[in-house]
Amino acid sequence: MKNHIWISLVLLFLLNFVNAQTEIINESDYPDQIRIACIGNSVTYGHGLGDREQDAYPSRLQEMLGEKYIVRNFGFNGATMLKKGHKPYWEKPPYPEALDFKPHIVIIHLGLNDTDPRNWANFKEEFIPDYREMINVFANMETNPSPKVWICKMSPIFSWHRRFNSGTREDFWAIQDAIEEIAQTEHVTMIDLHTSLYSRPDLFPDAIHPTEEGAGIIAETVKSYITGDFGGLTLPPIFSDHMVMQRQKPVRIFGTADGGEEISLKFAGHETTIISAPDGSWSTEFEAMEAGGPYELSVSTDTTIIINDILMGEVWVCSGQSNMAFLLKREKHQETEVPMADHPEIRLFNFNTVAWPGGGKWTMEEMQKTNRGEYFIQGPWLKCSPETAAEFSAIAYYFGKELKENLGVPVGLIHNAVGGSNTESWIDRKTLEFNPEFVDMLEDWLNNDQVQDWCRGRAAENLADSDNPNQLHPFAPSYLFSTGINPLEKFPFRGVIWYQGESNAEKISQHEKLFTTMVSDWRRFFDDEELPFYYVQLSSLNRPTWPEYRDSQRRLMSEIPNTGMAVCSDIGHPTDVHPKNKKDVGLRLSYWALAKVYNQDQIYSGPLYNSMQIQKKKIILNFDHTGSGLSTSGNTEILGFEIASENGTYQPAKVKIQQHSVILTGKGLRSPTNARYGWKPYTDGNLVNSRGLPASTFSTKK
Questions:
Q1: What CATH topology corresponds to 608-699?
Q2: What is the pTM of this model?
Q3: 155 pLDDT higher than 60
Q4: 325-359, pLDDT tens digit by residue?
Q5: CATH number belonging to domain 18-227
Q6: Cα–Cα dist 673/596, whole Å
Q7: Dihedral, CA atoms, 361, 365, 366, 367, nearest 10 degrees?
Q8: Alpha-carbon span 276 to 299, nearest angstrom
Q9: Measuring CA to CA, which residue among 220, 197, 199, 224 is closest to residue 210?
């Protein structure tokens, strides 16, 4: 009984504390109209809008809140928070006008102009004291009830701003951090104007001032904080009947509700009650569980959401471009495999697209949804059956099936690959912005030769009817991270399988940096430095850069920890970039996971070149992952090796296999210098290990 009383008291305290922090307005406390003063710079003023009197965010906020409120725009172009800034808000006419207005609610959105090199570099130590003073001036005004002050996390500045690379980028984020510190120390609510707009560069033609639609998003955000109305209780699409949650990791459940709302959760015999944050977000964790189920999840406010048939097991993200997206119903073995795909403890979650980036023009509706971040239709989770598996990634299916058969636990597969997508589209915008080599990739990407020309050409074809120079597309740098990775942020999973590279194969050295950046970025984002990341080496195809690209992928494996590579050059096609045999690809990825993640003792890789010794007229090549020894597929004549003379000219090599090594000689060669294998775009190389797994393309030349 005492425990129940104690829990109730704690909950009451938290509820009162959060309600105080959220500053949700109770209209009954105000007998007359509620006055709202919007303090700010040109974004508040409405610079660049066709009709600022109607479209600036304060005007839109007035429309949304209705007659109970009087909303006034006290924005001033170029204004700084810093008193010593080049245009201090304190000295401009709107400031005394706002004081005379005697507002009940004050919304402060300042800081963007403080990034000017005349300001932050010289007076940054005074930003927090100046901001605190402004909060106190408004908070201590004599109104009934006392004024409530909200401060705003700044709306974005995008990378094509003229000073972005010369200091604005770093100063912007330093000011954001300062604003967050102020919110915490002054116990005022911070309205996040950044997150919802950071993924919307299409709304910022000059990189800093939003369009009418952008101003409307700001108004809607401010309204939600004032009223606490964030649309009520919702769970992300990743929570649905038949879902799989990751075993042996804390069970994390999250969603949104109205601000300061009490939320009760029940799951697998556990219960808890929490309070949503000022922005409506909420998250809680239960202790890690072993494989099992089915379980029921209940989440309640004044309404209740029930999720049924939840299993605990192994969850993997399956991502990349079209070869990962290749459907089981089109796969080489589909006639026998699809009818047998009845695996109720394998669960499938698809990110379906509203528009596939194939040839042809997109409709205006498709382009608008893409801009709004609605490119994917997520889920729901489905039990694996012949009908559902046929419409799912073939590689992911074969990978998950092998895991299920070997581990004996439920398996959840999350597939979000997009055909034609490039590596840079899967990297977070902020990561690209802070990378000196890639930041310029974000500007005018459709005409930017840092992006492979095929991607730009295909996107231009899709977007032919758009009149927005910043129109978004899945090939735009950072777009698929925003729409396909960000929704998974809080959802625990075991690892990633990845098949992508065709859209970066013409820029090999650039891809090496992009891929390294992407893996690091995902590990940072998911807070898992050792997140397993297993990828597919490009297959064989008659495209000239592919041998060097395959070798680059091989080398990346030794440079990026906890990665592995499945070789598939033996099952390519000379002219088809989508070879039909995906079964072996999925199985080869699963061997890496079973050996490295689940500690099963098995050969998990094909032969990988290790070292070279030159002995007079011959070269000895040593390999790892040979099993009991090297051989050729079908025990036929060995193919694919070449040997180089002193002048660097290659010729076909005479080859002798010596268990774990290969000995090469060349016709008329007295002093060989290097060797290579599988160095044709469509290679006939046939070296395998004792499990029959193929050797990777490689060159000994560094």
A1: Immunoglobulin-like (2.60.40)
A2: 0.94
A3: yes
A4: 999 999 999 999 999 999 999 999 999 999 999 88
A5: 3.40.50.1110
A6: 35
A7: 80
A8: 13
A9: 197
